[in-house]
Specification:
Pfam families: Uma2 (PF05685)
Keywords: Endonuclease, Hydrolase, Nuclease, Plasmid
Number of domains: 2
GO molecular function: endonuclease activity
Structural class: alpha+beta
Strand content: 25-35%
Mean pLDDT: 90
Number of strands: 12
Helix content: 10-25%
Organism: Euhalothece natronophila Z-M001
Radius of gyration: 16 Å
Oligomer: single chain
CATH architecture of the largest domain: Alpha-Beta Complex
InterPro entries: Nuclease_put_TT1808 (IPR012296), Restrct_endonuc-II-like (IPR011335), Uma2 (IPR008538)
Largest sheet: 6 strands, mixed
CATH class of the largest domain: Alpha Beta
Strand order of the largest sheet: 3-6-7-8-9-10
Number of helices: 5
Shape: globular
Amino acid sequence: MVTAKDNIPHLTPEEYFAWEEKQIDKYEYIDGEIYASGGGSKNHSLIAVRLTTVLANHLEGSNCETGNSDLRINIAGTNDYTYPDITVTCDERDRATTQFITYPCLIVEVLSKSTEAYDRGGKFRMYRNNPILQDYLLVSSTRMEMDLYHKKETGEWIIINYEEGDTIELKSINLSFPIEQVYCGLTLTPED
């Protein structure tokens, strides 16, 4: 999460929607505060596009919708809104909304140095309160690595670590694909 926007008073969700429509950049809305939703590296963008394509192609013709980083999600049970890199919803309730979705079964965040701690910590704590969410995939933009947080039928979250040679399994949408499909041809440079 990037720092709160200076000189902006606490806003209601409705005021936030109206204010953000007039902005060039995107902003997350957490506990009445507005936070800039920063851009990422070239690899961040390429990985997000590739994954979005894999998911959208797999779900074509289904009742599920794949959204990119322009699709705002409402944190279930709150008035908080975030912009994940990729979301998938198969919930009919999300078809009735135009400014956000609330019930994704899959959320993907492509990690960057400035957001990784927030994506793994505070953001995941918010997301996991959603009763529909089954898979939360964290994707490295500097190494061929993905971490999948998967909710078991018991409600317990487990972490599955993937690396080169592995097949990613997203049970939420019944999809498996080799990790190389996302990273092929990219120059990966580990951050210091």
